[in-house]
Design brief:
The protein has three helices and eleven strands. It is mainly beta. The strands form three sheets. It has a five-stranded mixed sheet. It has a four-stranded antiparallel sheet with strand order 3-4-8-9, with no helix packed on it. The structure holds ligand MTE and molybdenum atom. The ligand Nc1nc2c(c(=O)[nH]1)N[C@H]1C(S)=C(S)[C@@H](COP(=O)(O)O)O[C@H]1N2 binds at residues 38, 44, 46, 81, 83, 85, 129-130, 132-135, 183, 185. This is Oxidoreductase molybdopterin-binding domain-containing protein.
Length: 185
């Protein structure tokens, strides 16, 4: 166990950062009571507190054009837990111009601080608990990996960054390393 745990914010950000749970508490905090279903454990109820993923990202300077709407939709967040469990949140889910969901990076669960284990992703609208990634170690922001569809320029071309789609190379996705032992729950 890391003391204290840190979360790496990386990818398409002007200010990538490595934050402790204590530093996450410097952002405006929200409290939420949730109920979700776990396939093996049944219904779970928890109270979480923490900043929104949106506020965490905005503080890190996302390299996403907020003046236009369509180009944002290709961005995603890959959220990784300490055991390698990983879930994707789409940019549009948390962007106030689209879903605007108050997804949190919780700094406490049921009143217990998460400084040692790391924050937990809280997705209040999810019925299943599987996206409640615990012990979050990294959040990567970037465009959906894979080949650019033909004719993409017509939809409002946007540089995909150093990866250079024009060169025919596939944009870099979230780091592929999958720590062993991601549990199936
Ligand atoms: N890191 C990590 N987070 C995880 C999982 C996991 O295997 N690894 N399982 C998920 C599943 S399937 C459920 S139902 C919830 C359970 O959340 P709880 O332990 O806080 O009640 O955690 C989620 N978060
Ligand atoms: Mo679960």
């Amino acid at each position: 166990m890391r003391h204290p745990a840190t979360v790496r914010l990386h990818g398409h950000l002007d200010r990538p950062a490595e934050l402790t749970v204590g530093q996450l508490r410097d952002l405006p905090s929200h409290r939420v009571e949730v109920t979700f279903d776990c396939r093996t454990e049944g219904e779970q109820r928890h109270g979480y507190e923490g900043p929104t993923l949106w506020d965490v990202l905005c503080a890190a300077g996302p390299r996403v054009d907020l003046a236009a709407r369509k180009p944002r939709l290709k961005f995603l967040l890959a959220v990784t837990g300490s055991d390698g469990h990983r879930a994707v949140v789409s940019w549009a889910e948390i962007d106030p111009d689209f879903g605007g969901q108050r997804i949190l990076l919780a700094t406490s669960m049921d009143g217990a601080p998460l400084d040692e284990s790391g924050p937990q992703l809280v997705v209040p609208a999810d019925h299943c608990g599987a996206r409640y990634v615990s012990g979050v170690t990294a959040v990567w922001l970037g465009p959906v990996p894979g080949p650019e569809p033909a004719g993409a320029e017509a939809v409002g071309a946007e540089a995909v960054g150093a990866e250079g789609v024009a060169s025919g190379r596939v944009p870099t996705g979230p780091p592929a390393a999958e720590p062993a032992g991601a549990a199936r729950r």
